[in-house]
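Suppose you are handed only these lines of text.
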Amino acid sequence: MTKTVLVLNGPNLNLLGTREPEIYGSDTLASIEDASRKRAENLGLAVEFRQSNTEGDLVDWVQEARLSYAALIVNAGAYTHTSVALLDALLAVDIPVIEVHLSNINQREEFRHHSYVSKAADGMICGLGGFGYELALESLARTLGSLKED
Ligand code: CA2
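From them, the structure of the protein bound to CA2 can be written out as follows.
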């Protein structure tokens, strides 16, 4: 059976492609989802994308992932830097978790350098725009053993 990766996107990521292209690139979340879906299919995986501006939704979805998904990709937006609730939810899951950021958070303001999500993630990709989501899927395909043999 095809394993499904849940991809969670936090606040304001629904605005991608409309403003600040110099920081976040010109991709929209829909175009990132499209590219990720194609990449996942090539890797023998499926993806489900979600976005919310509400912290509690993200916590609920992480809890749901524990039971129903093979792995998580999380771009928690600004909650990355503030949410102990999200960290606690992530610490309670025993599936692989990859943190993704479009921008290089370490080159930006000091308050973006700390990530609560990183404390629970197996790996973190930042600064590579929407391509980071595809790289996270590549890594998960290896971890989950979904790659077809040549
Ligand atoms: O680089 C990332 O992916 C971030 O998670 C994006 C968050 C930011 O708070 C994190 O520090 C890093 C913000 C997403 C806001 O995206 C917008 C896109 C277009 C216009 C306005 C906001």
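What can we learn from it? The pocket of CA2 is lined by residues 12-13, 15-16, 18-20, 24, 75, 77-78, 80, 101-103, 105, 112 (CB under 6 Å). The chain has a mean pLDDT of 96.
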